[in-house]
Amino acid sequence: MDGMERKKILIVEPDKKLAKKIYLILRKDGLITNTTDQALESIRTIQKEHISVLVFDVDVKDMAWDVAVAIIKELEPGLPIIITSTHNTPDLEVRILRQKPFYYHVKSFGTEELLLAVQNAIERPVTR
């Protein structure tokens, strides 16, 4: 990372196996990575720590994903949020795009595309 401050990624993913896979890949790339399966915990983390990128799955169980994302955007308006989903329907896609995420990732596209989106989010100029 060329002496730059290490970037912190927060992954909100209810599928623990997938969360661990993403965690390990990002750690290997030198990124500080935390995972949770709870939207409320992610909000608390964002209130306490500087997060560089948020990867947020719509299938969180403890809160409606769109409510959580709206709260997070209020707390950190410039935070790049990558929203992920296992299923893609026209209705869901419209709801996600209304949230104006940095990127919308459909999981069936594989993790390479997601990792590229994280990398792009890290490299973009900070607008906070």
List the topology elements:
Layout: E1 8-12, H1 16-28, E2 32-36, H2 39-48, E3 53-57, H3 65-75, E4 81-85, H4 90-98, E5 103-106, H5 111-123
Parallel strand pairs: 1-2, 1-3, 3-4, 4-5
Helix pairs in contact: 2-3
Distance between the termini: 21 Å
Structural class: alpha/beta
Q: Regarding CATH, which class?
A: Alpha Beta
Task: Specify Rg, calculated over alpha carbons.
Answer: 13 Å
What's the rounded overall pLDDT mean? 92
Structural commentary:
- By secondary structure, the chain is of the alpha/beta class.
- The protein has a single domain (8-123), classed as Rossmann fold (3-Layer(aba) Sandwich).
- It contains five helices and five strands; from the N terminus they run βαβαβαβαβα.
- The protein has helices at 16-28, 39-48, 65-75, 90-98, 111-123, and strands spanning 8-12, 32-36, 53-57, 81-85, 103-106.
- Helix 3 links the parallel strand 3 and strand 4.
- The longest helix is centred in the N-terminal third of the chain and has 13 residues, at 16-28.
- The protein starts with 7 loop residues before the first strand and ends in a 5-residue tail after the last helix.
- The mean pLDDT is 92.
Question: What labels describe this entry?
Answer:
128 residues, 5-stranded parallel beta sheet, 19% strand
Short description:
The protein is of the alpha/beta class and 128 residues long. The chain is built from five helices and five strands.
